[in-house]
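Memo to structure team: turn this sequence into structure tokens by end of day. - J.P.
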Amino acid sequence: MKGPEGREETAGDPTKGDKRDGDPLDLVAMRRTTWPWRRIATAVAVGLVLVSGGMWAGSHIATTSSVASHMKAVTPSRITATVSEGVLQSSITVSGVVQSSGTFNLNVGTVSVAGAVPIVTSPPPVPGSTVAAGSVVAWIAGEPIFVLGGTTPMYRDIAAGMSGADVQQIQVGLETLGFQCTDPTGVFGASTQAAIQAFWRRIGYQPPVAAIAAAAASSTAQSSDVSVTPSTNSPSTAPVAEPIVIPQWQVIFVPELPAQVISVGEQLGQTVTNPALVVSQGSLAVSIQLTQGQTDLVAPGNLAALRVGSAGGGETQSSKSYLGRVVSVTPTAGAGTSSSDATGSSQSTSPGGSTALPTGSTALPTGSTALVQAYPALSSALAGAKVQVTIVVQQTAGPVLSVPVTSLVSLPDGSIGVRVVKGGQIANVQVVPGLSIGGEVQVTPTKGVLIEGQKVIVQ
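Reply from structure team:
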């Protein structure tokens, strides 16, 4: 195709392009000509970048040897402890209660009441309650059994006309309760009988009477010769015409009163199992219950510190501190039993087991009851008070040097010692270890100097 000036034009052919005289334009040819040079320039630029990066990294990365050359030597730190001087001791802390230092068993004799079964008919006293002169400690077949002070046991029925130490104890007890007896000492006369009548009425019962022919003829009359007329369970104000006789089982003499009930053996509706009661006796002391593990540590003579609260319960602002000493440790039997056969081997069982034990088996101990005497003595007002007891179970005889157990080392010569730090220097000191308590050990230096306040290295 020719243009207006007679030139040939090519339409729609990109390979041909638009050619004009003197200004040819061939794009494809240009691309072919410039592309290799662009690739070369790009490669050169990338190479320059890599070379520069490597040079920079080389100037900033250090070798292990170069790092070590810049580090300063570090002196290892030492863990030290101070040498102490003083009494080294260990202790246990337990709870206790103030009560008398001894015990007494209240045993009831054979109760014989016409037409009645000898069972407990009223609730017995409870542990912790107080028993005093004239206190009723049991009600058997509707009859009261009471206590009076005295050391001679009630071994017979006592009736009008009799005499003896037991009669004298009855008289003294009645006078303690406010009932005057003008009869000769130890003689059961009219005045003694009147005092007995008044006492029985005050507790709400008729006095005990008996239809006996010759109760006063012999001071050795036995209770089996007497038939006691039961009372009516109601107060009586009418004078008693029949001669009075006190059955052997109706009075229990207790050496020291008042006393505190420790345990009870009688149960309502049951026959009495002796001892009917166990009560405290003697001066006040602190009773504590120890486990078997604690029992192995505590012994008579151990010192103690006591913190005594009020008689009503726990520690208060008015609590007082006392020194104390363990005076006794009594094992308490456990629920299980143990026995030995002829070969010396032993066996044990617990309640509910089906194994039948041979005769002679004994209860296994599960702990103990310890008594601690307080100094100064505890007042009677503190009976029943709760006490915090700290017992020293181990201690040195006096002040000693002590260090942590972990500071002991084996020295080059094979002996035991410690390493003492002084003025930046370490010196070995040979020692003999002693009592060890709570991570501290008693040490006695045998070679070298060891004094309070020095520093020893611990492991």
